[in-house]
Structure formats: structure tokens, C-alpha cells
Design brief:
heterodimer; A: 427 residues; mainly beta; Rossmann fold; Neuraminidase; B: alpha+beta; 60s Ribosomal Protein L30, Chain: A; 29% helix
Chain lengths: 427, 187
Amino acid sequence: MNFFRLIFVCTVLGFNISSSYAELNIEIIGGAESALPVAIVPFASQGVPVDIRNIINADLERSGYFKMMAEQGMPSRPSTPAEVDFNSWKGVGQNYLTIGRVNNNGGQYSVEFQLLDVYKGEQLLGYQINSSAADLRKTAHTISDMIFEKLTGKKGVFSGRIAYITSNSLGNKKWTYQLQVADADGVNPQTIATSNEPIMSPSWSPDGRQMAYVSFERKRAAIYVQTLATGARTRVAEFAGINGAPAWSPDSTRLALTLSKDGSPDIYVLNLATRALTKITNSLAIDTEPTWSPDGNNIVFTSGRGGKPQLYMASSQGGNEQRITFTGDYNARASFSPDGKYLAMVHGNGNNYRIGVMDMASRAINVLTSGPTDESPSFAPNGTMILYASRKGGAGFLSAVSLDGKMQQKLVFNSGEVREPAWSPVP
Amino acid sequence: MKLNKTLIALLISTSLLTACSDDKKPISAADTVKTGVGSVNGASTNGLNNAGVMNAQGLAGMNGMGEGSGEYNDPNSPQAKVIYFMIDSSDVQPDFVPVVNAHAQYLVANPSIHIILEGNSDERGSREYNVALGEQRARSVANMMKAQGVSDSQLQTVSYGEEKPAAMGSDESAWEQNRRVEIVYVR
């Protein structure tokens, strides 16, 4: 059992709200038993504002696929292939080695690295990436993605982003709510919406450029679509009653959402261009939390029509409604894996709410987490991990768990509630 | 993809970069420059800071709620402005019927006065489902009031689900205080 504790110091940009997300701790709990030993040698550099090596090291460490070598035990610090003595790295049990250099050309940086196979004595990857000072972190994450993909055959997700909601008490039963977007490692959080009334349910557009969310800023629920690059936004739904749970269709043209304008909460599909509404469900019970299958053909949603919340599936045109969860007394807030083979959900028994994953072929549910207040599962864009929210001692935090449940990590912000994580579908 | 057995070549040419990367996008400065969220930050000021003061009134706990004292007839009494609910239920419990009735009578007698019924839930389960649960509670109170002659136009409902807890903590006592409808008089 590995137990690492990495502390990142982040900067919060803008907004004078007494925001205190200055520090994020990531704890890694467990890891793959077959973790590959990898050493990342500190990059040769002078006057570079970002420690590229440490970012790559932390990324690969968090993935659970690798056992990263501590700097102290390294036999040497080569920065060019000619300086590498492979036998010495074999001697300290390493399978792979990454070396690199950063050249500063008057504020523009050129980052070069090589990934080496220690046993074969050969190069697996070698690249040069030009980067401004502001993009050095991003460049480091890009290198992590390249190394990850080379060694695992799966796309890396380190250069992606996550969105989440925070709330902080202002005292006297008042709160401030923020929608934030950060790098996938929780660094560089930026507030994209803030209000003293609740903000909920962030949903990325498939191209990662827009975000739909619910805001109560006008003292009633409304759904907004905001373009991240410009901050421009449109209020797309503000009907009487609930306007909730927006979910982008895979073709980006529509939002599935929950409205209660006709009485009980039902699932609708809103065409974003024409604003035409199609009613998908029509039960007297609560229907909410729609999510699209990646092929766009079906919508899975939570319904209380059977007494307790369970997951149901309907055609995205409406009709063909069928219940799909039968174990556990509470199954809600579903989220599809990018390949459509798995469905993550909040799986509750008694007062224990955990994250479960259903294999869509067998309909069997595998419970991945230990609860008791786990919620809002969101798949990584490569489908290997699920980000979710938990709460302990009144503090909300984010965690990630691998699809097999073996690797877990905890992202702890030093104060306030952090919840409703949503992993950007694209880097 | 064994590109170089002697480990000397650092591959810089764009064509080679493209060829060796399984990710179809060539890694270049342009890519790394444009994908940040840098400009996102300016966005949020628009229209988002006008959220005002809503819950200015203090909310008492459950003590004394069921006793049917004269305070229920006084909508200005903070004690009489919260209806509590059982788990997963939007039924108004018998103890709280007098509270709802007192407000209903006051509203019938004062047709120019408006209220907002704010539904809330405890923290258990999923957030949007809890919004729906909170709304059912608010509607349940609204329907009782309408049955007594309160006009539709005097009543507004909103549900905050678990987003505005009255009590912090993850125990039965906090959950009880959070499963509620708050009656807010609009001034």
C-alpha cells in the first residue's frame, strides 16, 4: 500500500471573495500491484519558473500505473542520452527513465525530453516542445500524457481539466457558491461563476468549450450555457419550478434537462438552436438527472416512480422506458463511460451512499468506493478513472477511483466544500 | 516505433513528431499556448453578483414546533416559519398542519401579501434528486394553503435541495433540521 502526500500550492486568480482554495493535498491510497518502476530525472534547466520534472512525476504517480523513483535514490542526474549509464539504472530497479532539458530563449522555453527503456537501452520517445512561461505546466502535463500513452497504450488525461462547485460559509446562514475550472491535478483553479445563491450541476459540452450549469442567482432555478474562453453566457431555461440537471447531447446540439413546469419533474430535451422542447418522460413521480449514452440513442435518468430512486433508460426521442437497476435501494445520478460500456452511479444502501459501476452488457453493478456520502461520479475522458465527491466532518472533497476500484486518490482542498466534479471530455 | 537504437537523435522535425505520436495532433507551441483557461476568469462577474439577501430571518430549531401556541398565528414569529418533514417524504406531518393553516388564514385575510415556499432536503443521496424532493415538499405546503383559499398569485415555490443546509453535520439531528420548507414573506 503506497501512501504519498503531495502538496501543491496554487494561486487563485481574481475575485476578492475570501476564497481559500490556496492549497490542495492529493493523497494516493493504494495502486496497481503491477506498477511499473519509472524514474524521472530532474530536467537540466536554469531560471525556469516551473519544476517540470515534479509535475510529470506527480501526474504519473497519481495514475496508479507507475512506481515513481524518489530523487534521492538516483545513481546520477543525466540530462542527455549520452550521459546515461543504463546498468546503474538497472541496478536500482528501474524499467524506464525520462531525462530532459529546458532551454530559456529570452522568456520562451524549449522543453526537450526522452523516454528510455532501461533494459533494451533504447529510446521510446523523444520530443521538443516550445512553451511560453505561462504554459510550462501545461507542457509538463502534455509530456505526462505522452509517457503514459507510450507505456500503457491508453490516452493520458493529465492535460485535461476538471470543473467543480465550491461553497463557503459567509456566516449567518449565508453562503457563497462558485463554479471553478482547474487543471486535472487541481492546480490553477479559476472561478467562472460566483453567486450567493446555489450553483449546481456543471456539464461540459462535448468539445470542452462550453459549460451548462444551474444557477439560483435570480432566486429561482435557471440553466445557463457559458462559453469558457469569453465568459459570455446565455440563459437557456427558466421555466416555473425546477430547471435542473443539464446534460449535453453527444452531438452538442441539445441539452437534456429536468423541468417541473407541468407538475412533477420530468426529463426534457432542449434544442439549443431552435429552443424547441421535447418531453421525454411523463411520470407522476420524480424523473431527473438525465445522461446521454455516447451514441446519443438513449437517455438514462433517475426516477422515483418505483417508490425509491432507481435508474431507468428511455430512447432519446422518448419512449421505450425501462428500469435498469434492481440491486440496492437507491441508484441515482448516472454517468456513462466514454465508450458507453459502463455506467457509474450513486449506489445507496441504508445510509451508505457509494459509487457503483454497472457493466451495461451484464447489468451487474460493481461497488468501487466505501461511502458513506459519495456522489456525482464523472468519468475521465480515457475511461480509466472516475472522479467523485465525498464528505467527511462537514468538509466536501473530491476523490478519484480507478474503474476496477483498486486505485484511489483524494484531492483535499484546505477549506470549504468542494463537490460535483465534472471531468472535461477533451484536453 | 523503435526510432533510434543509439539514443542520440532528439526528434524535432514536425513530420516525425506527427508520425510518432499516436495522438494525431503535433505537439507544438501553438497547441500548448491556446488551450488554457486563461480568459475564463473575466467571465463570471456578469450578472452573477446580484444575488441578494434572502434568508435574513433566523430559523429556530424544532423545539416547540408542535405545540400549537399562539405564535403560529403570527407570521412574524421566526418559530412558526419552518415546516419539517420525514425522510424521503413530502407529506406535511400532523404536527405542522396548524402552522400551515395559520399562515394560510393570514394570507387569505391579507391577499396583497406574498410568500415564497423554499423546499430543502437533507444531504443524503444525489443533489438534483434532492432538488426534486425539496420541490415536492414546497408544493405540498402550497397545495394545502391553496385548499384553504390562498390565491395562486400569493404563492411562489423554489427548491434548493441540499444546497442551503440549516444545520451542518452528517447526523440524524442535522438531517432532521434540513428536511424542511421555509416560509419566507416577501416584503
